[in-house]
Amino acid sequence: MLIKKLKTIAAIACMSLCSLPMMGQDLLARQAPVDKKMRAVDSVALHRLILQEQFDSPAADLYDEWENRYAHRATELPDSFRIDLRGFCMPTDNKVVTSNFGPRWGRQHKGIDVKVYIGDTIRAAFSGKVRIVNYEAKGYGKYVVIRHYNGLETIYGHMSKHLVAENQEVRAGEPIGLGGNTGRSTGSHLHFETRLCGVALNPAILFDFRNQDVVGDSYMFHRSTYEKESIVANRLRGVGGRAYSEKEETAAASSGKRNNYAGTSFHKVSKGETLSSIARKRGTTIQDLCRLNRITKKTKLKPGQILKYN
User: Fold this and answer.
1) Per-residue pLDDT tens over the stretch 201-238
2) Which residues contact 243 (CB under 8 A, 6 or more apart)?
3) At CB < 8 A and 24+ separation, what contacts does 256-264 make?
4) Which of 84, 97, 109, 305 could lock onto 104 through a cystine, CB 3.0 to 4.6 A?
């Protein structure tokens, strides 16, 4: 009788042990769809966030069309408009502004130039949707236009490479391209524009590149006072407080005067000049010129190109 009971207990124990792997498989099988659903939650949440931003987007009231054929087209500006600057990202980590918004070389400079080097990462300033990815040989070079949910459009010019595609949704801080020297450019830099209804606004009224920040949580645009505010913004956050004419820049470069470019001296390359002749003229060395401008001894200089020499 005792032997029979022991056999029964042994049989039950064996069956229990054999069932454990099957139970584990059942648990894994039940967990698999749960894991898949959890992974999908992140994508769904992000999509909902984007949809919410679009729903709340002031851009929907400002723009009647979505067009990929032109970089900008001016439409009627509102008398006043609040631009939300929260959730921004500086388009570049570089703090050196080399050219102001406003009159320059006999015409209007519709953005600001920030010194970047070829290959530097350029990022979306705000969340939005890429409207244009294109190349303009006699203008922007390789450029990107993004329409943001806060109503602004930003333009990033002279890049060496595009990292986004048209109609792609991007988040603030997402890489959109690499710094370069394409198009109408005499040295590697980022040409950065901020536009409202296709009309160029001075980026200095919104961005403070030296401090890598925006001017506040929002900016209230008033059509009646904007031009005066733009002049003040150049004085506070631009290059030397005003934009220089081509004649003034050439004279300063030829005489070796400082152009108020954050205390740096520049030389404008003339036809036939070489690194060796420029080094002799400016009392420096070829090695220092290459180091300051991130070029090599074999770099071919172009007339009109601006070089740092101290």
Assistant:
1) 999 999 999 889 998 899 999 999 999 999 889 888 88
2) 99, 100, 101, 102, 103, 104, 109, 234
3) 256/282, 261/96, 261/98, 262/96, 264/96, 264/308, 264/310
4) 109
193 pLDDT higher than 90: yes
CB 183 within 8 A of CB 145: no
Q: Output the CA torsion sign for 287, 293, 299, 303.
A: negative
- Beta-carbon contacts of residue 181 (< 8 Å; ≥ 6 apart): 118, 141, 158, 160, 187, 188, 189
Q: What is the mean pLDDT of residues 75-100?
A: 92
For residue 261, what is the DSSP state?
B
DSSP-derived 3-state class of residue 59: helix
Closest CA to 268 of 287, 283, 253: 253
**Hey, which residues does 154 pair with through a beta bridge?**
146, 194
Nearest-angstrom CA–CA distance, 205 and 156: 17
CA neighbor of 259 nearest in space, from 113, 155, 108: 113
Contact indicator for 269, 301 with CB cutoff of 8 Å? yes
Under the banding of pLDDT at 50, 70 and 90, the label for residue 194 is very high
The SS3 call for residue 141 is strand
Closest CA to 156 of 125, 119, 199, 202: 125
pTM of the model: 0.62
Contact, 158 vs 114, CB < 8 A? no
End-to-end CA distance of the chain: 103
Q: In angstroms, rounded to a whole number, what is the distance separating the alpha carbons of residues 306 and 270?
A: 10
